[in-house]
Amino acid sequence: MKPTPGDIFAVYTPRLNGYTAVQVTALKVDGKSEQAAVLTLDWVGPTLPDAAAVASMVPATFNFFFWKEHLEHLWVSAEIPRDFTLVGNRPPLVDKDTKSYGGWPSGDSIYRQREWEEIPKDKRDVFKALADTRDNQVVLKLGEKELSRSTQRLYTEVLQAAPTLSAFDVLPILTFVGCEAPVPGLFEFLRSRPFVYEADITNHGERVVDLRGSRLSRLRLDLTGVHELYLNQGLSELNASGTFSPELKIHAEADGKWLTLSLKQLATDWSGLSDLDSLHVNPAKDLDVSAIVRRFPKLTELRVWGAPGYLRNTAELAALPSLQVLTLNEMFGIAADEFPGPERLPNLGRLWMTSIPADLAASVKKAYKNAARDGLDLSVRQPRKAEWLAENLDNPFRVWDGAENITPAQAKKAATLYRQARSAALAAASEHKGSPAALVSTLTPIVTTYIQGFNKLDAKDTFIHTEEREHIYVALMGICDAVDERLKSVGGASAEPLDRDAVVSVMDSIRDF
Predict the structure, then answer these.
(1) Which of 62, 266, 304, 384 is close enough to 388 for a disulfide, judged by CB 3.0 to 4.6 Å?
(2) Contact predicate 38/122, CB 8 Å
(3) Up-side HSE of residue 69: CA atoms within 13 Å toward CB?
(4) Are 53 and 18 in contact (CB under 8 A)?
(5) Which of these, 505, 503, 509, lies nearest to 481 by C-alpha position?
């Protein structure tokens, strides 16, 4: 079902315990897909709005953090999600085009605006003033490091150099903290900073981590050695790494009801988050759906990316009655007759499958054809045969094979460039006996050939954009990983690792994309 410009839809927003509303302002065809411009409206209600409420709705404006009276106006898929209800139609409330893209807004920005307004106004006013003017006056010197009053990000070296973390009280618009080593009082410091909404903490050495009272939205945290983790109210994303102790207990708002948990590999031998809303696993190697269902029975969203990976017991997906979003990317070992049909996943609103077994792709397209007509956001792309998987297990550019904007020749050449660079780099590492700088010097022509190959490909027909650029970088880092392993096998555990920053500098000095 497609919308009409002017249509107003309401959707239940659990965190607000009420409904929010959006309006479709325009439609367009972009390539093979149709898109709708959707505007968030300034309305929250305990029930679906009546005609009077619809008639009084106006665009919502947001000014939290760096936004300035911002309209949330996005191009999204024109397929109306199943949980959005048509409640009326009015002439579009804005007539300006938008260059932003995303998914159908479900009220999160309204929730974030309310959180922002809970911070004392005098602090918000200081934040806005500095965000607008950028005060570069140096207010703190730590060795050779100088920090201005407008500093927004702190990292390990600076955090360790401070005599006490209260020294950073002179930084009123700090928004990010990243630390890779133990720093006394770090988590207490995070609890005291009203504008720090993102943190990346590893190797902290704490058994009990307490973030209650902080205002984090996104947290990347090493859980190695942690026995008790208290998350703050309002946290949306927890990216957990490290080794999970069986004694670990995670305490979260509503036991994870509004939380997305991201893991590199599924770990379930710990407690807490029994009401988890969303689970992301990347990169998955061998994943058992039964283990997911037992541990997180109330999931509404499951996203799994393989490298590639294997998914077992997929019939058990039907035991997730609340599942609304399912994404599988580069996952194999799934029998076509085992995957549940639409009648067993009645609340599913989005099913995206990319780089999956060819017989599964054909089966899902057929089984879910009618559901797609009824509003299911269905995307099944890049079906793979067994022969393809055997040939591409070691190819980080396998995702390029079958991509809409990349030709088969470009995908094949990328794989060749990677394999040649990896082989040459490993040979160089095997023969290396000098300094780290000497190794970089030896690898420089190899990296040069690798990057110049992509320069030539892109010069013929531009196709390398943000996502493809990331793939090229990640593949190069994979080569660096292999080099480090080879250095250890040749020189022992004490062998000095490759200077990756120097390798990246070589790449950046050469690339044209």
Answers:
(1) 384
(2) no
(3) 0
(4) no
(5) 503
Cα dist. 234→63, 123, 198, 306 in Å? 18, 19, 12, 29
Tell me how far CA of residue 60 lies from CA of 44, 93, 109, 434, in angstroms: 11, 11, 9, 62
- % pLDDT > 90, the chain: 86
Q: Which residues of 316-325 are buried (b: 16+ CB within 10 A; e: fewer)?
A: bbbbbeebbb
The reported pLDDT for the residue numbered 64 is 96
Q: What is the pLDDT of residues 214-232, one digit of tens each?
A: 999 999 999 999 999 999 9
Once rounded to an integer, what is the mean pLDDT over residues 230-250?
97
Distance between CA 255 and CA 473 in Å, rounded? 37
> N- to C-terminal Cα distance for the chain?
39
Evaluate whether 42 touches 58 at the Cβ level (below 8 Å). Answer: yes
Section 114-141 average pLDDT: 92
Determine the 3-state secondary structure of 306 from DSSP. strand
Query: What 8-state DSSP symbol labels residue 498?
Result: P
Side-chain half-sphere of 388: how many Cα atoms within 13 Å?
Answer: 18
pLDDT for res 132: 85
CA neighbor of 376 nearest in space, from 314, 326, 332, 334: 326
Residues 6+ apart with CB under 8 A from 223: 229, 240, 241, 242, 243, 244, 245, 248
Contact criterion met (CB below 8 Å) for 361 and 334: no
Helix (H, G, I), strand (E, B) or coil at 490: helix
CB hemisphere CA count around 53 (13 angstroms):
18
Q: Under 8 Å CB-to-CB from 293, ≥6 apart: which residues?
A: 316, 317, 319, 320
Contact 445, 425 (CB under 8 A): no
Q: Are 480 and 503 in contact (CB under 8 A)?
A: yes
CB 311 within 8 A of CB 290: no
Q: Is the pTM of this model over 0.70?
A: yes
If residue 463 lies in a helix (H) or strand (E), which one and from where to where? none
Of the candidates 250, 194, 248, the residue with the CA atom closest to the CA atom of residue 225: 248
- pLDDT > 90? residue 329: yes
* pLDDT score for 2: 84
Beta strands in 48-137 (DSSP E): 61-62, 70-71, 73-77, 84-89
Residue reference for tokens 């309209």: 71
Q: Using 50, 70 and 90 to split pLDDT, how confident is the model at 333? A: very high
Evaluate whether 346 touches 338 at the Cβ level (below 8 Å). Answer: no
Q: How many CB atoms lie within 10 A of CB 28?
A: 12
31 pLDDT exceeds 80?
Answer: no
Note the pLDDT tens digit of each residue in 443-467. 999 999 999 999 999 998 899 998 9
- Supply 128's token pair: 């806005």
CA distance 196 to 362: 47
Token pair 């997929």 in the structure block, residue? 314
